[in-house]
Amino acid sequence: MTSRRGYLIIICFIILLSFVVYITNHQNATKVVYDFPCGVPKTLVNPMSKDSTTSQFVIDRSKMWTQKKLEIYFMDDHITQETIDDVVEIANEWSEYSNIKFVSTEDIGKSDIRISFSSRKGYVSEIGNDAEKEMGKSTMSLGDLNNEKNNIKLKSIVLHEFGHALGLLHEMNNPNNPIVWKIPETYIYFKEEYGLESFEVDEQVINDIIDVKYSVFDSLSIMTYPIPAKLTHNNISIPMVSELSEKDKINIGINYN
Ligand SMILES: [Zn+2]
Hints:
By secondary structure, this protein is of the alpha/beta class. 26% of the residues lie in helices and 10% in strands.
């Protein structure tokens, strides 16, 4: 998936099919179904030279934006103004805790982030300023979310994807992630639920980013994966997240100030 557009992409998954049931019941679902795999490409998981001294969560600081205003261009003609307004408003929740501001633009030439909606592509985003390498092309896909009526689902996905657009990686790759994986079960689970091969599970779920220091693992981060306890030896489960965690809010302010 990462190669077909020739740039570094994080392929994202968020609960879809069981999402409404999960939220409505506020209890553990016996089987959570995810529509899209979500992961960190191998090039990002393997050792990197990063300035992590002030980085509190998994962020590639080399991909952080230097400007404070990021202009978003919506590439599809059929997208409603309501959808545009909703996406920009949700994205700006990150702005409440940092010096970044997202605004929509009708000038693709001025845009920093270009959003398309394609269910075929799922939910994906460039990592931070990698978007600058794709001038005139889509840098984020929000899948089938045009006119999405489930505001919680929309919020969860948009916040997550814009986290990537700010340079954030998945919290799962935090070296302080305490999960002790049941490896065979994890491979099987992610194959069944996400269609991931074992090496992809290694890259996108199990492997840590190494040689860097990060804060305590934040299981409530918007950048986590939902994980059922049955995949872990130490009985850790991670719920689906649809809000910025308190650490997300603090940490985005540390990195963008
Ligand atoms: Zn993601």
